[in-house]
């Protein structure tokens, strides 16, 4: 797995430890035989792996997949099945900065994964963002409950 991931040993070990802390992986109590892995997925980890598999299937193109690797792409797409205001997305993603959200929305709009519309029904017009094209496929992959 280390070679397939392309990560350094230190980075890979830190990632495994983080997945254990998130309760997505657990140490395999049967470890000690070459055919038994040192770690195994927890039930929650199995659900997360199924979601990840659906996301990867939704974006088979490697060029498009690079955007999927960005920190905020999937969380933003998960929130935009229906049109959302910037402030609503920001409040739902508590740790994101305005700059990071703005840059992410711009990149998603550029790839046509997000559609930006101007709502003029209020006294002060405001933009709304909604997943589109591959973005809606990713949204469905994330919010689909197994």
From TrEMBL:
InterPro entries: HTH_HxlR (IPR002577), WH-like_DNA-bd_sf (IPR036388), WH_DNA-bd_sf (IPR036390)
Keyword terms: DNA-binding, Transcription, Transcription regulation
Domain HTH hxlR-type: 68-140
Keyword Transmembrane belongs to the record: no
Gene3D superfamilies listed in its UniProt record: Winged helix-like DNA-binding domain superfamily/Winged helix DNA-binding domain (1.10.10.10)
PANTHER family: HTH-TYPE TRANSCRIPTIONAL REGULATOR YODB, TRANSCRIPTIONAL REGULATOR, MARR FAMILY
Stated name of the protein: HTH hxlR-type domain-containing protein
Species: Pseudovibrio japonicus
């Amino acid at each position: 797995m280390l070679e397939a991931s392309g990560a350094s040993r230190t980075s890979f070990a830190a990632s495994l430890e983080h997945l254990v802390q998130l309760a997505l992986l657990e140490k395999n109590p049967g470890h000690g035989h070459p055919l038994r892995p040192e770690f195994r997925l927890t039930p929650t980890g199995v659900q997360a792996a199924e979601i990840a598999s659906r996301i990867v299937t939704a974006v088979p193109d490697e060029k498009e997949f690079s955007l999927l690797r960005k920190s905020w792409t999937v969380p933003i797409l998960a929130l935009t099945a229906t049109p959302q205001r910037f402030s609503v997305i920001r409040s739902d993603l508590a740790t994101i900065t305005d700059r990071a959200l703005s840059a992410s929305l711009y990149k998603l709009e550029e790839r046509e994964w997000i559609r930006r519309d101007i709502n003029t029904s209020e006294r002060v017009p405001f933009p709304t963002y909604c997943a589109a094209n591959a973005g809606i496929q990713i949204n469905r992959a994330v919010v689909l409950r197994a």
